[in-house]
Amino acid sequence: MSAKFEIYKDKAGEFRFRLKAGNGEIIASSEGYASKQSCENGIASVKNNAAAAEIVDQT
């Protein structure tokens, strides 16, 4: 199984997404969005920007 994005509604009625690894573990989760389209735009942003994202070690 490969990684997947899941869109769901939280208790407040906002749309959120989570990214799950192939083993089912949640590896990222989003803020709440007022509309499903905004949530889908958030997923698209992660897909477009994650590969080139800088790693900042703050330990």
How would you characterize this protein structure?
It is a single chain. The chain contains one helix and three strands, in the order βββα. Helices cover 24% and strands 27% of the residues. With 59 residues, it is an alpha+beta fold. β2 and β3 form a beta hairpin. The mean pLDDT is 96. A three-stranded antiparallel sheet has the order 1-2-3, with helices on one face.
SSE topology sketch:
Layout lengths: L3 E6 L5 E6 L5 E4 L6 H14 L10
Antiparallel strand pairs: 1-2, 2-3
Could you list some keywords that capture this structure?
24% helix, alpha+beta, 3-stranded antiparallel beta sheet, 59 residues, globular, 3 strands
Distance between the termini: 33 Å
What composes the largest sheet?
Answer: 3 strands, antiparallel
Order of helices and strands: EEEH
Instruction: Return the structural class.
Output: alpha+beta
Shape, principal axes of CA atoms? globular
Runs in which pLDDT lies below 50 for 5 or more consecutive residues are none
Helix content: 10-25%
Q: Give the overall average pLDDT.
A: 96
Task: Give me the number of helical elements.
Answer: 1
Radius of gyration: 13 Å
Number of strands: 3
Strands side by side in the biggest sheet = 1-2-3
Strand coverage percent = 25-35%
